[in-house]
Design a protein that fits this description.
5-stranded parallel sheet, 36 helices, Rossmann fold, alpha/beta, 52% helix, 6-stranded parallel sheet, flat
Length: 906
């Protein structure tokens, strides 16, 4: 049998036991695309075999490839000149250019430039010249050998980045590609993030073997009478797909003489007998010792590595954090990153590097080793070797969360007991000193008791006298005025605008649901309609058919809420004819910001309304823009107003101008919006705006789909003598607006389609003009200020008459009453302040007790001082001490009051 497993070393390009993984394809495709690639992982993961295979593959396709093993250049006692010249020498030899280029002469010709420039010039003058068309691949193996150099090679990595950046300037560099292989983290190779090539390159991750790709290894075991799939499942269960171990287990199975009872037992017996048991002597070729040496080589780092690894062994969740300890563990190959958690790579590692192994290594690293060994040698009797002070604390900190031997714990416990006894001795001496001091201070203590008694009695009497006082009632007016002024100031600044607008939204949502408006009908274009029509914008021929059918229903007015500044063929000519023959049709335009023209024919016929909306600071629509006066004197009306006026005209109602820009339409008087109306602060009041009294959401309007209209499925009476709005409600068209109905407490946020918004504006004007429905009005600012002052005064009055829990209950009930007043006023068409007076009510109610309490505290303090001054005549020492105690018990402000009171009494 010619099949052979290879344990250790690089596999040849045609080795039958080579297993292709996803990384093979990923590296090959990335290099073909000209990407800088780096394969950085633990040892014996198949990096060199992957390098050989990929290089061979590229060479077979006619590309120029060479592999530079950096260990061949050397890393100890080598100068930068030798390193760079050795690199150029290997490149020259690898590309078989030594017979053509005299390196000695070429190197001397470039001695006047830096070593890095010489390397770049070699690429430009030699490689690009000798290989005029071919792509050039340079593979750098064992890159981690540079970590042993006594000089930095950051410039070399900077050159790699330079070569990739030069591609934008010099196309020749597009033919040059680098690939790096080794056992190191990118941050170990270069520290300068601005020059590192690793943030522009592609990292190739080496995964282990799996059942999906391990087929090449099955060839060597075909002669055995076993279930191949089950056998390799057991092999991978032990090796975790680690290439070296997988090849080794396969080789051991071929030469195994043990009887095959079952695949699982057979594999376990071979693994334990030939790999795990006495692994130090059986580790050939060396693999497990490589892992052990990497973890233990740095004594300062080893303790931290073992601590982290011990946590993993104990089953703790160790999240990856890219720390130096975790990176070193990953590079050792002992653990892997699995779903952002560190896990042991395979069962073999877990069995070899177990808790017993960790404990033994930790023992060898213990910082108190010398004292520990001496204490053990004294048969654990000589306490002079025990740890004390800082040394003990450091040892305890080191031992935390580590699993140590029983002798370690006895040593540390004995050290702690010794430290405890020393502390007890010190405490005993300190206790004796305190006893002596206590005897000396006996007299002072008795005097202090008398002083405390005097102070307590003085405070008690002063408090009783202060409680009999009632402060002047003019405090109520002053506090109410101050609180109201501060709240009005906050309102003017705009800090309360958001809360007031939110409360207005809640009123809209809380009011009774309106019935469906019979005068306004919506023909909606929703998502199913778009799918059935097959495109958006809707073709002109579809609109032609829809408008012709709609005309047959004899509506009073038609609002076409689609932009039609450009033709949407087919059917444009027919649509123009429909425009000309439909006098009650209103098209749309956009006049604010990025303007959108109306249909030309409708513009000539003056059958156009704009659809611009005014958005508040939170993106919601709460106002209706009815008209805009242009600089040339032309007046543009909104779509909603246009439709409403045409309907009202059939009822014999026309608008009349009133003073102060007011407008009477039937029973309604429209009042133009001002910048500070209601809860608004310095709002944009351009054009003619009104506060929009919404009729409701889509449910408050009769809606039919445009496909129903095209199929003549709408009852004729549903559209006759009505205002019909045609527009899009589909979310994909994004003609959606935030309104007071959008932010709901117990429902999903809901946006209102533009056509529904225009229907609300039209319905609002019709309901106000025909039914006398109130339009939203506001008080003058002075009245609003007086309203805030009134409720601030109510808060102080309540605070004057009630206390503690009763005050809280009363203020709560009063606040609810204020809310009901504001709500019922809203139902009658008045938007009166609610949040500012509510804040005034609460703040005033809370402020008065605070002010009164402070005044009573000052009075009580003065009375206490007066009583203590009187007590000094009979008990001078105790009285003076009582005054000092009083000062110490008070803050700096009260201390000044005490000093002032003392001066007044003396």
């Amino acid at each position: 049998m010619n099949y052979k497993y290879q344990v250790g070393g690089s596999l040849t390009s045609d080795a039958p036991s080579y297993v292709e993984r996803s990384c093979d394809r990923e590296l090959y495709m990335a290099l073909k695309a000209g990407e800088f690639c780096y394969v950085l992982s633990s040892r014996q993961m198949g990096k060199s075999s992957l390098l050989v295979k990929t290089s061979h593959h590229l060479q077979q396709e006619g590309y120029k490839c060479t592999v530079v093993d950096l260990t061949n250049i050397g890393s100890e006692n080598i100068s930068p000149l030798q390193w760079y010249k050795g690199l150029v020498t290997d490149l020259l030899s690898g590309f078989k250019l030594s017979p053509k280029i005299n390196l000695k002469n070429w190197w001397q010709e470039h001695e006047d430039i830096s070593l890095l420039q010489r390397l770049n010039q070699f690429i430009v003058e030699v490689l690009f010249v000798e290989f005029k068309q071919e792509k050039i691949y340079i593979f750098l193996d064992e890159i981690d050998s540079i970590l042993n150099l006594n000089f930095s090679v950051d410039d070399f990595f900077g050159l790699i980045r330079f070569c990739y950046n030069q591609r934008a300037v010099n196309p020749e560099y597009k033919r040059l590609t680098f690939a790096i292989f080794g056992v190191a983290a990118p941050s170990d190779l270069i520290k300068d993030k601005k020059r590192t090539p690793f943030n522009i390159g592609k990292s190739i991750k080496l995964d282990g073997f799996t059942l999906d790709n391990i087929q090449p290894l099955t060839e060597g075991l075909k002669s055995l009478e076993v279930n191949e799939k089950k056998l390799f499942q057991e092999i991978l269960a032990w090796t975790g797909g680690q290439p070296f171990l997988t090849q080794k287990v396969c080789q051991l199975l071929i030469h195994s003489s043990s009887k095959i009872v079952s695949e699982a037992l057979w594999v376990e017996n071979v693994v334990r007998t030939h790999i795990i048991d006495k692994w130090q002597s059986q580790d050939d070729p060396q693999h497990l010792r490589t892992i052990s040496d990497r973890i233990l080589c740095d004594e300062l780092m080893a303790g931290r590595l073992l601590e982290v690894y011990q946590q993993i062994l104990l089953g703790d969740d160790v999240a990856t954090d890219n720390s130096s300890e975790q990176m070193e563990l990953l590079l050792s190959g002992l653990v892997i990153n699995q779903h952002s958690q560190l896990k042991i790579k395979n069962l073999i590692y877990e069995a070899v590097f177990n808790l017993e192994w960790v404990a033994k290594q930790i023992e060898n690293l213990r910082p108190y080793s010398q004292n520990f060994k001496a204490w053990i040698a004294s048969q654990q009797q000589d306490e002079s070797y025990l740890l004390t002070g800082t040394t003990l604390q450091e040892a305890l900190a080191w031992s935390y969360n580590k699993k140590l031997s029983d002798q370690d714990y006895r040593f540390l416990t004995a050290s702690q007991e010794l430290a405890k006894r020393e502390i007890e001795v010190d405490l005993k001496a300190e206790k004796q000193a305190r006893r002596i001091e206590r005897e000396k201070s006996q007299f002072a203590l008795e005097t202090s008791r008398q002083a405390y008694k005097l102070l307590a009695e003085a405070r008690k009497i002063a408090k009783r006298k202060a409680q009999t006082l009632r402060l002047a009632k003019n405090r109520i007016i002053s506090i109410a005025g101050i609180v109201a002024s501060l709240i009005i100031l906050l309102r003017i600044i705009g800090l309360l605008q958001g809360m007031e607008l939110t409360m207005l939204d809640q009123f809209f949502q809380a009011r009774p649901v309106a019935r469906i408006d019979p005068r306004v009908v919506i023909i909606a274009l929703d998502e199913p309609d778009i799918q059935q029509i097959g495109q958006y914008p809707v073709p002109d021929q579809v609109l032609v058919k829809a408008l012709q059918i709609l005309k047959s229903y004899n509506p009073t007015a038609i609002g076409l809420d689609f932009y039609r500044d450009l033709p949407v063929e087919p059917g444009y000519k027919e649509l123009v004819e429909v425009y000309k023959t439909t006098p009650n049709l209103i098209g749309i335009e956009k006049i604010v910001g990025s303007a959108i023209a109306p249909p030309p024919v409708l513009a000539q016929l003056n059958q156009v309304g704009f659809v611009d909306q005014v958005l508040d600071g939170d993106g919601k629509v709460r106002r209706a823009l009815l008209s805009v006066q242009h600089t040339n004197g032309k007046l543009s009306l909104s779509l909603g107003l246009n439709l409403a006026l045409r309907y009202l005209e059939t009822q014999g109602i026309t608008p009349k101008n009133l003073p102060n820009y007011k407008m009477q339409i039937g029973k309604a008087v429209l009042i133009p919006f001002l910048p500070n109306d209601g809860g608004f602060v310095r709002a944009d009041s351009g054009g003619y705006q009104i506060l929009l009294n919404f009729h409701g959401i889509e449910k408050q309007f009769q809606i039919f789909s445009i496909t129903d209209l095209l199929a003549n499925r709408i009852p004729p009476n549903s559209l006759r003598d009505r205002i019909v709005l045609i527009g899009a409600t589909a979310e994909s068209i994004s003609d959606l607006f935030q309104t007071p109905y959008s932010s709901r407490i117990f429902d999903y946020p809901h946006q209102m389609a533009g056509v529904t918004l225009h229907a609300n504006i039209t319905s609002h004007i019709l309901s106000a003009a025909l039914d006398g429905q109130p339009v939203l009005r506001v008080w003058p600012e002075v009245v609003e200020w007086l309203w805030i002052l009134l409720w601030s005064g109510v808060g102080t009055l309540l605070s004057w008459h009630f206390q503690s829990l009763r005050l809280f209950t009363t203020v709560t009930i009063t606040g609810v009453g204020l809310t009901l007043i504001a709500y019922f006023a809203f139902l009658q068409g008045w938007w009166i302040p609610h949040i500012p007076p509510l804040i005034g009510l609460v703040v005033a109610a809370v402020s008065l007790p605070i002010v009164i309490t402070r005044q009573l505290e000052i009075i009580q303090l003065r009375q206490t001082v007066k009583l203590l001054v009187a007590a000094i005549k009979e008990q001078p020492t105790a009285g003076q001490i009582a005054i000092e105690y009083l000062k110490q018990a008070e803050g700096q402000e009260n201390q000044l009051l005490i000093e002032q009171a003392l001066q007044d009494e003396i």
